[in-house]
Specification:
Layout: H1 2-31, H2 36-55, H3 64-88, H4 93-100, H5 103-115, H6 121-138, E1 139-140, E2 143-144, H7 148-170, H8 176-198, H9 207-232, H10 238-245, H11 247-258, H12 266-281, H13 286-292
Antiparallel strand pairs: 1-2
Helix pairs in contact: 1-4, 1-9, 1-10, 1-11, 2-3, 2-8, 2-9, 3-7, 3-8, 4-7, 4-11, 4-12, 5-7, 5-10, 6-12, 7-10, 8-9
């Protein structure tokens, strides 16, 4: 069981690395003038088709339990990615990446609301630390300025926290691959409905320029990563999943600076360190450490 847990954690690190790169891919699609609903519909259609091909006849073994729980998880998944993409269109890549990482500090409070498991003082203090990090990212021109995009990405973090918490239960007595397929299919259907009803269409979008990064988002960042996440989450706790996946914020900010999409500033470093530090420390049991000592 320990080997499976270690492998699961390694898979989650790979997921975090790809998701960090996903912020860069999203930025390039946005720069190609693709609107949010077009990005969402395309990435999820690609992900659904890829997943269906990979699963093949395994889909026919789908159970009612997997259908229901996968669909619910898909709603949270759609809301999370939609708000993330919409928010990133009006904020920086690093802000989107680091603020998304705050979903980790939200997970214990959602578990509290659902399971009546009161968060420890440590959790409350680390939540304040993470919010201080968001404040540092928002401190510009000698004043705090939490932009519209930052607030939307903060909402995205909440939806990701809901999805992580829900998946912990949804994958316990089911096949992770089938749950993931239904989750992605559900998000695909919602994305297509929003795209059709929204009426934004493809006007002004540079389709050839946007295809390579959106393929990355559909095949790797969505299909592969959520298969790995649902598989790994079967063998590790939701809080630990959140901590490891929060590294996507670090990777996203790092890649953005290295690729010259934004400058390296003191605010970026301080805010990023506070948020990533809080998410990592969230999984450390200090009382246990003292008892061992």
């Amino acid at each position: 069981m320990k080997k499976k847990e270690t492998l699961a954690e390694l898979l989650l690190v790979i997921v975090a690395l790809i998701w960090g790169s996903g912020f860069i891919a999203t930025e390039y699609v946005i720069k190609a003038n693709w609107n949010t609903s077009l990005i969402m519909a395309t990435r999820f259609v690609i992900a659904s088709i890829t997943m269906a091909i990979a699963l093949n006849k395994k889909i026919l073994k789908l159970t009612k339990y997997e259908l229901i729980h996968g669909s619910v998880a898909g709603v949270f998944l759609f809301l999370a990615f939609y708000t993330q993409t919409l928010g990133q269109s009006t904020t920086t890549v690093s802000n989107a990446a680091f603020i998304t990482a705050t979903n980790v500090v939200m997970v214990p409070f959602i578990s509290w609301a659902i399971n009546r498991d009161r968060p420890k003082l440590q959790t409350v203090l680390l939540t304040i630390m993470a919010l201080a990090g968001v404040g540092a990212l928002s401190f510009k021109d000698s004043r705090f300025s939490l932009g519209r995009g930052d607030l939307i990405v903060l909402l995205c973090a909440f939806f990701f926290a809901m999805q992580i918490t829900y998946l912990e239960k949804a994958t316990k007595d089911s096949d992770p691959a089938r749950v993931n397929f239904i989750q992605i299919l559900s998000a695909t259907i919602i994305s297509l409905v929003v795209f059709i009803i929204g009426g934004e269409g493809i006007q002004g979008a540079d389709i050839p320029q946007g295809i390579p990064p959106v393929l990355f988002l559909g095949v790797l960042s969505t299909c592969l990563c959520y298969f790995l996440q649902t598989t790994a989450q079967k063998y590790t706790a939701a809080t630990k999943v959140g901590v490891i996946l929060s590294l996507e914020g670090l990777f996203g900010g790092l890649f953005s600076v290295l690729l010259g999409l934004e400058p390296l500033t003191i605010n970026l470093v301080l805010g990023g360190l506070l948020i990533i530090g809080a998410t990592i420390l969230m999984n450390v049991d200090f009382n246990s450490k003292r008892r061992e000592a």
